[in-house]
Amino acid sequence: MKNILLPTDFSENSLNSIRYALKFYEGETCEFFLLHIIVLKNGMSNLSAAELSAHQEKVLAKLEQLRQTLEQELPQGHHFTLHILTDYNFFVESIRNQVKTQKIDVIVIGTKGANEFKNAGIGTHTHEIITKVKCNALVVPEHAKFKDCKEIVFPTDFSMIYNDDTLKSIGAILKRFDTNFRVLHVCKKDSELFPDQVKNKTYLEAFLKYFHHSFNFFNDKKLEAAIQSFVEDQGVDLIALVAKNLNYMQRLLFQPSVKKLTYLTNIPFLVFHEHRPTK
Predict the structure, then answer these.
(1) I need a labelling partner for 224 at 20 to 30 A (CA). Which of 8, 67, 186, 255 fits?
(2) Please, what is the angle between helix 49-73 and helix 12-24, to 10°?
């Protein structure tokens, strides 16, 4: 059974990510936790106890309405349970608490929330979840619609060896969708891998030998452009990343230039963390 956290601000992007999650995990036994955070700002409460109680009641009513709507959309014979939660806290602290308390396996969140600019790439709260919360995260862009994950691209520079927890998470996705796992390395023309990179590549090859996979090398292209080209050529359904590889994370998700690339608006990202919270 999986425990999935679904933070929501009730925006269209948020609702799209929730519906994507319900499709992504269809057929599995899952506990979903719909969470709305009343964000505490500047270290001080700006609501009285009475105001907070009234606001929480309104939020819980909206969450309950959302739960009922989603339950009506679920297919017969599903194995899902939907819970509703509200919290009044700092955003990251609230997410961390829920991950620990509910033993969350994956956080599913949209790329940006209701108050983000439309032309923004990754919103502030999504950025914080990816970089500050040690839990796997499925990041769903505003225009992403679920389809079977037949093609997954895994950008890597082979600079690290992936631990068992990360490989186990990758293996679970590959088994579930019977997907083609495309390892992508972008490098300068005529450059060769260093000995440590060769070692890490060999380790990854050994793990992938029982799965459909390929190793792909792009020369003379910027990483972001290479991803865009590969997504278009291969019909990629999902981009997988390891959070520990900060260089790739920054270049693919957080640089201003990526806002112009369509992969950030229609292709979900699955971000793996190497160190999970103690359960």
Answers:
(1) 8
(2) 50
Domain extent, residue 220, equals 151-266
Q: Do 133 and 159 share a domain, yes or no? A: no
DSSP-derived secondary structure for 48-74: -HHHHHHHHHHHHHHHHHHHHHHHHHS
d(Cα 259, Cα 224) in Å, to the nearest integer? 10
Tell me the average pLDDT of the chain: 88
d(CA 134, CA 136): 7
CA distances from 140 to 71, 146, 231, 266, 268 (A): 20, 10, 16, 8, 5
Q: 114: domain CATH number?
A: 3.40.50.620
What's the pTM value of the predicted model, to 2 decimals?
0.91
Q: How far apart are CA 57 and CA 276, in angstroms?
A: 33
For residue 180 the two structure tokens come to 């083609």
Write phi, then psi, for 163 (nearest 5 degrees).
Answer: -80, 175
- What are the tens digits of pLDDT across the range 180-236? 999 999 887 768 899 999 999 999 999 999 999 999 998 867 888 888 899 999 999
